[in-house]
Specification:
This protein is of the alpha+beta class and 286 residues long. The radius of gyration is 19 Å and the shape is globular. The chain folds into 2 domains: 117 residues, Aminotransferase class 4, branched-chain amino acid transferase, N-terminal domain (D-amino Acid Aminotransferase, Chain A, domain 1), CATH 3.30.470; 157 residues, Alpha-Beta Barrel (D-amino Acid Aminotransferase, Chain A, domain 2). The two termini are 24 Å apart. Strands 7, 8, 9, 10, 11, 12, 13, 14 and 15 form a 9-stranded mixed beta sheet that branches. β1 and β2 form a beta hairpin. Bound molecules: 4'-deoxy-4'-aminopyridoxal-5'-phosphate. The site of 4'-deoxy-4'-aminopyridoxal-5'-phosphate has 13 residues, from α6 and β13.
Length: 286
């Protein structure tokens, strides 16, 4: 449960926290966000999340609302006030509030900053990883700049709803050439029968996941063969293992895609190993 939310310099009770109706995040999804894992009360991979936040803001020409150090203090204070040991911390920055009009507002507008933290049930997440998750594939109807972490998430919301309707826990978007781009809120990976791990290269079609990047460090460190190239749905269906990565789920096994079992239909051995060693390579905040 979230008790306290940071909004524009104030720590407010959850029920009283809000932003203006003409906030450009609300009106235009003119906003970006980050979600970091909280593990043992510490933020996982804060540096990479802050790097991506700065990049997303830069691409939208929104000013950094405060220094990285100050933002880090806000994250930590929100985690502390909500007594989160295991969970997530969410940060959103919008262009700010201005009378509704498409062009960027003239003059200085103060970005809106919202931060909240929430506990995640460890046991439930582990149970999910033990069983593995099912995927539904869908055409990728998102825009051409999926590398920017904007709050424009309606295609992901619809995809998750479609997945849920079929008993799947995540959706994988597929480009017009039949190649998987990424998950609705995760990056997509397969392990070929040869043992080679495959994931789509970073570019405009996917969000450069922080978990994805840290997992690449794990693979380098462990000398596990790995390649960045697009893979098709057919390749995924024939794969030995499949998994997704995200800050909220770290490395999560995929056991079925469009109702077809992957491998023997249980979480793969390599996937389980990567999940167990992931945090060894991740940065933990003080
Ligand atoms: N792709 C998309 C579309 C996402 O929404 C997310 C999660 N925010 C990811 C990938 C995974 O990124 P990260 O590992 O930084 O959580």
């Amino acid at each position: 449960m979230t008790r306290v939310v940071y909004v524009n310099g104030r720590y407010l009770p959850y029920a009283q926290a809000g932003v203006h109706v003409e906030d450009r995040g609300f009106q235009f999804a003119d906003a970006i966000y980050e979600v970091c894992e909280v593990n043992g009360g510490r933020i996982v991979d804060e540096t990479r999340h802050m790097d991506r936040l700065e990049r997303s803001l830069g691409e939208l020409r929104i000013a950094m609302p405060m220094s990285r150090r100050a933002l880090g203090l806000v994250l930590r204070e929100v985690i502390r006030r909500n007594r989160v040991r295991t969970g997530l911390v969410y940060l959103q920055v919008t262009r700010g509030t201005a009378p509704r009009d498409f062009p960027f507002p003239a003059g200085e507008v103060t970005p809106t900053v919202v931060c909240l933290a929430r506990r995640v049930d460890d046991a439930r997440r582990d149970a999910r990883a033990t069983n593995g998750i099912a995927i539904k594939t869908l055409p990728d109807i998102r825009w051409g700049r999926c590398d920017i972490k904007t709050v424009m998430l309606l295609p992901a919301v619809l995809a998750k709803a479609a997945a849920e309707k079929e008993g799947a826990q995540e959706a994988w978007f597929v480009d017009p050439d039949g190649f998987v781009t990424e998950g609705a809120s995760s990056n997509a990976w397969i392990v070929e029968r040869s043992g080679m791990i495959v994931t789509r290269p970073a570019g405009n079609a996917i969000l450069p996941g922080v978990t994805r990047r840290t997992l690449v460090d794990v693979l380098d460190r462990e000398k596990i063969p790995f390649t960045e190239r697009p893979f098709s749905v057919d390749e995924a269906l024939a794969a030995r293992e499949a998994f997704i990565t995200s800050a909220s789920g770290t490395v999560m096994p995929v056991v079925a895609i469009d109702k077809v079992p992957i491998g023997d239909g249980r979480p793969g051995e390599l996937t389980r190993r990567l999940r167990s060693i992931f945090h060894q390579a991740a940065e933990l905040s003080p």
